[in-house]
Specification:
A seven-stranded mixed β-sheet has the order 3-2-1-4-5-7-6, with helices on both faces. The chain starts with a helix and ends with a strand. α1 crosses α3. The chain contains six helices and seven strands, in the order ααββαββαβααββ. By secondary structure, it is an alpha/beta fold.
Length: 209
C-alpha cells in the first residue's frame, strides 16, 4: 500500500465523511448493536461516538496505517471524557476476518463494501463469523436504479477508483449481501446528496439465518 492510500487518503476521507448527512446515517446504522461487534473498514474511528453502551467489544479491521493512527487518537480522546469503547485492532483484510466461526453478534460496515477488492469474499467471511441470528449493519453507496445514473457511475469508475483507493460506484449492494446467504430485514435506499452518481445509498440490516 503506497503513501497516498495508507497515509494521505485516510485523513482526507476523515474530513469529508464528517458531514451531518453521514452522521445521521451513522447514528441510524449503529442502533441496536450490542455484545461483540466486528467493524470492517474501521477507518479513522468516526463511528466511535455512535456505539451504543451495550457494545462490549469491537474488533476493528482496517488496512490503512494512517487511519489506525487517527482512530487511536480519537479513542484516547473519547476515553478522557466518556465511557471508553473497548476496541481491538485485529486485522487488515475483510476477506480474511480475524474471528472464529459464529463468534460475533454483529458486523458493522459503513462505506466499505465499495472499496474491498473482493466484496463477495468479504461478505462470505462476514456470514462465517456471525452467530446464527447475528446481524450485518450496513451503510453503503452503490449502484443506482436509474439507468442514466448507473451509466454515469460506470463511466466514472476508473477515476473514482484511482482517487478513492479502489472505490467503485456501481456495486449492487443488496444483491451482493443476499448472494452471500444473508437475509436483508431492513433497507432504506435513496440519493443521499448531489451528485447522484456518487451518492445512491443503501442503509439497512441483514441477518444470518
Amino acid at each position: 500500500m503506497g503513501i497516498y492510500r495508507d497515509q494521505l487518503l485516510p485523513r482526507a476521507l476523515d474530513l469529508s465523511m464528517r458531514r451531518s448527512a453521514f452522521a445521521a446515517q451513522r447514528a441510524q446504522v449503529t442502533a441496536g448493536l450490542d455484545g461483540e461487534v466486528l467493524e470492517i473498514g474501521f477507518g479513522t474511528g468516526l463511528n466511535i461516538p455512535f456505539y451504543p453502551a451495550a457494545v462490549r467489544r469491537v474488533l476493528a479491521v482496517e488496512p490503512a496505517g494512517g487511519a489506525r493512527v487517527v482512530a487511536a487518537r480519537r479513542l484516547a480522546a473519547r476515553a478522557e471524557v466518556d465511557r471508553p469503547v473497548s476496541v481491538e485492532f485485529a486485522g487488515l483484510d475483510a476477506a480474511a476476518l480475524p474471528a472464529a466461526d459464529g463468534s460475533m453478534d454483529h458486523v458493522l460496515s459503513t462505506w466499505t463494501l465499495c472499496t474491498i477488492p473482493d466484496a463477495s469474499q468479504a461478505l462470505a467471511e462476514i456470514r462465517r463469523v456471525l452467530r446464527p441470528g447475528g446481524t450485518l449493519h450496513f451503510a453503503e453507496h452503490g449502484l443506482a436504479p436509474d439507468p442514466a445514473v448507473a451509466r454515469t457511475q460506470r463511466r466514472l469508475n476508473p477515476v473514482q477508483s484511482c482517487l478513492a483507493g479502489g472505490c467503485r460506484l456501481d456495486r449492487p449492494i443488496r444483491q451482493l449481501i443476499t448472494d452471500a446467504g444473508l437475509r436483508v430485514t431492513e433497507l432504506e435506499t435513496g440519493y443521499l446528496a448531489w451528485p447522484r452518481a456518487l451518492s445512491y445509498s443503501y442503509l439497512g440490516v441483514a441477518s444470518n439465518p
